[in-house]
């Protein structure tokens, strides 16, 4: 055995070439598509979507990848097949005219096989080979393999013919999908096809509590990494959509940009700037506390800034929400008309949780919103347990955060302490949690809003009274009276009393000021009188002093004069 030297140049290893299916989500799970030039088995029970998935593979190949395809059906006739998929927008007749696809129906009757003797696939190879060569096909579908081998009961011959078919398809270098019906305890009825196929995809259609869920699983994929979980998929008017999200790694980018809540006072409670873009927000509270109003205000604010918002409503119709929001001064209709706001309303029981997740994922991918609202998530409990809802929401939050989409959930909580702390178990998952509580006092009910958590920012720990008016939502600082926190009428009465006291105090102060002024004037008057009296006394005293000085001066002059006279000077 020869070993490669560590210093020898590295060889570039060839990876398995893959053929993209064009089916939304499936190529992400398979990391590029199904193995190119090899057979892939799609198995499942009746009605699980095998034929639809395989024909979408053929149509997408012809229309998106310029790879013509042959669809060989052993059950449905070509015209029946074309009619069945016309509702999905696939015009098979036109594609056939353009030689992009070729539909071929092969009828196999067990009685005729017995009459004509030994059964083998030589005739099929000739017919299929001609179809492939006639349009230069790169893709082939055989639907379903059970009908092809319906005439064979000998397991040895069956196994040999099956291997021969797969080897022939590989030799033709066509990417093939073979559909097979699920057996009892095996992936297919014969239990052989899954062993000779390079890739096996299992489709499942489960019914639980009268709600259906379609799931897809990659059972086997030779030579390639692939997702191993069960992935929900949706069949709607646009074909098949597989949700590739199960559990994403926590390495998504984060933004420091802030988005306003639409309520100025609530922004102030969140450092004055609102939520982080791409964060997840939970608004919980008892019935009638205004959760939908908060969500609609948030949607209105996003649309006002020309950002797209999609609103998933599980309780009210869009018309109800638009009408009801008029009562608080919000007009959402212009945003709906301009395409900035989209409502997607349905009862939770329309689909299973997984199907809801697929539908939400598909809508978000198509609409590309900046803000998503789910109102309320509590209703999803109707189609799954709390843990199921939590699992679904974890995947949804992971997906939205990876797309930097801000999401707001509303949740109904019962009026007890336990539920306030759980709220479908998602309160620990979200980045911000607003709780709206009833505050009963003096025979009336008012609302109090708390910011229970807000990751990555300083937030107010104060309770605000949440007031819904015909001009919007407002948060009022609660009034701390002698009896504690006062809200509603009690707060207004206390505020009026306080304002009255202020007026009375101002009046008393003014009266005191006037009294002081009068006192000052009286004192000033007295001071002026005393000053005049003082000046009068001063003048009198000064008068005596001046006279005395004058007398002394005159006497001195007289004495000097007398002395001069005596000496006859």
UniProtKB/TrEMBL annotation:
Q: One Pfam match, by short name?
A: ATPase
Q: Which UniProt keywords apply?
A: Coiled coil, Hydrolase, Kinase, Phosphoprotein, Repeat, Transferase
Query: What is this enzyme's EC?
Result: 2.7.11.1
Q: Name one GO molecular function term.
A: ATP binding
Its EC top class is transferase
- Using the record for this protein, list the coiled-coil segments as residue ranges, or answer none: 520-565
Residue ranges of domain KaiC in the record: 17-256, 257-489
**Name used for this protein in its record:** non-specific serine/threonine protein kinase
Q: Which organism is it from?
A: Spirosoma endbachense
Instruction: Recall the taxonomic lineage recorded for the source organism.
Output: Bacteria, Pseudomonadati, Bacteroidota, Cytophagia, Cytophagales
